[in-house]
TrEMBL record:
Pfam families: HXXEE (PF13787). InterPro entries: HXXEE. Keywords: Membrane, Transmembrane, Transmembrane helix. It comes from Paenibacillus profundus. This is HXXEE domain-containing protein. The chain crosses the membrane at residues 7-30, 102-120, 132-153, 165-182.
């Protein structure tokens, strides 16, 4: 578990690269909608790498800037909670639609979450930190948003999204954001946690 806790985001990049190779070699055999969802899955893996490895100081931003923590190395976010929540987001919430690409509402939810990430990283976090960049924003601007726009264009051009899809997708997205992003990182908070961020993970917010 210690190895996974330390390197889960690096393993994610290895998975992302493997998927990229698969897509390049087999794109002509993959339905367009499934290919776009694969790219969305790749986007979240690189997003997580940006947040927790390079530059990797999302933990410091979250604990110090957002929560003014007196124990920023472990509270409220720690390496255990970061790993669990992000693995669920990537390998359940983002990967499941790839396996069922024609269930449109299932695919819409992570696409909408990608757009929501701009509100979090591009607006909210930057205002709080008084910055123009924070870890995760690059992936949002150059992966999530263009891939998401492509997905929306595709389902519109193919006329395959019903009003029910949009309704269910929006509800699923909102519930997922609340559970996985807003509340998820708080459920495993523990001021006595042994799973601490390093000074690198705290970055400019290290005490």
């Amino acid at each position: 578990m210690n190895m996974l806790r330390k390197y889960w985001m690096d393993l994610g990049v290895i998975v992302a690269v493997a998927v990229c190779i698969h897509l390049v070699m087999n794109w002509s055999f993959i339905p367009d909608i499934q290919g776009i969802l694969w790219l969305s899955f790749i986007a979240i893996l690189f997003h997580q790498f940006e947040e927790y490895r390079w530059p990797g100081y999302f933990g410091g931003l979250f604990n110090v800037v957002i929560f003014k923590s007196e124990h920023p190395e472990r509270y409220p976010l720690n390496t255990q909670s970061a790993m669990v929540i992000n693995l669920i987001i990537a390998y359940l919430f983002y990967l499941l639609p790839v396996l069922f690409p024609h269930v449109i509402w299932l695919g819409l939810a992570p696409i909408l979450m990608g757009f929501f990430q701009f509100i979090w990283h591009g607006v909210f976090a930057n205002i709080k930190a008084k910055t123009i960049y924070n870890p995760g924003l690059f992936a949002v601007l150059f992966l999530h948003i263009p891939i998401g726009a492509w997905y929306i264009y595709h389902i519109g051009a193919q006329d395959i999204a019903t009003a029910t899809d949009w309704t269910l997708g929006t509800i699923y997205f909102a519930v997922a954001v609340y559970i996985l992003i807003i509340k998820g990182n708080m459920w495993m908070k523990n001021k006595e946690s042994q799973h601490c961020f390093s000074k690198k993970h705290l970055g400019p917010y290290a005490p």
